């Protein structure tokens, strides 16, 4: 089988490529250049698509003994991930750029090109299991990435390979060292790769402009502070609220909602964050599930590495209505709701509202 191995420059993708090659497949490594100015992206422990990473990926391919190429995806990444990220915040939502990158870049743009070039599948270093086209959690709960893969369609999953499915991160690092891969001890990437200094608010302010607005207390209806742009806040946020006066009960206040048109941020007590009803749009059904009954019993994960909630899901036209058996807090529109049957992904949708 001809396999295109996506190599980010990290230890996971390097070991994934090595395992596929050792299994006897015809493997070609490819690194995605996602920025026209790689120096503006995060490096070291915080990067995944810099010049440093491309060099690490090339060295790994040399050790494995496979051909290696760099594909320029900068324009597509900027349009589908960076611009989407900014637009979502401008609309009062909180996007997950890693989820969008998997959907639009790694398993749409890359897979489409790979199939056009005659490859049979794309292999990545994601920590998730894929069995007969069914996506399942990794045994390493702390590294499980099935949530950010929950947006993939059945067709995309049918051309995907996750060679690390049954391995823990510790096992992957040990194997990398045995194979002589120099990335064996390279720190994991984290945070947002295209925000070099990690200051999301400054990044958004530079693109959307400062815009002073009120911070309103939900209980009293009074203005208790001002902000420089509602885009700088997310539902559930506690720190950095710039509130002028303490709450009457002396307890902390959290962001309850964001209204981009009036540029208003509403805050209130933690108890007001609790929700049991969620409406989510753009559902993708990619697992073994029967949606014809109109209602599904399952569990739902509402953020990467977040808590899992037992739920009932009512299937509608272009949307799903999720009822949680126990309340969740900090549920932000724009995030993904990934549905599970045990450890099996059955579908996903984008959170539109919660109450």
UniProtKB/TrEMBL annotation:
InterPro entries on file: MnmA-like, MnmA-like_C, MnmA-like_central, MnmA-like_central_sf, Rossmann-like_a/b/a_fold
EC code: 2.8.1.13
Official protein name in the record: tRNA-specific 2-thiouridylase MnmA
Region (Interaction with tRNA): 143-145
Positions of the catalytic residues: 101 (nucleophile), 193 (cysteine persulfide intermediate)
A GO CC annotation given for this chain: cytoplasm
Signal peptide (residue range): none
Function: Catalyzes the 2-thiolation of uridine at the wobble position (U34) of tRNA, leading to the formation of s(2)U34.
UniProt keyword annotation of Transferase present: yes
Gene Ontology molecular functions: ATP binding; tRNA binding; tRNA-uridine 2-sulfurtransferase activity
Protein encoded by which gene: mnmA
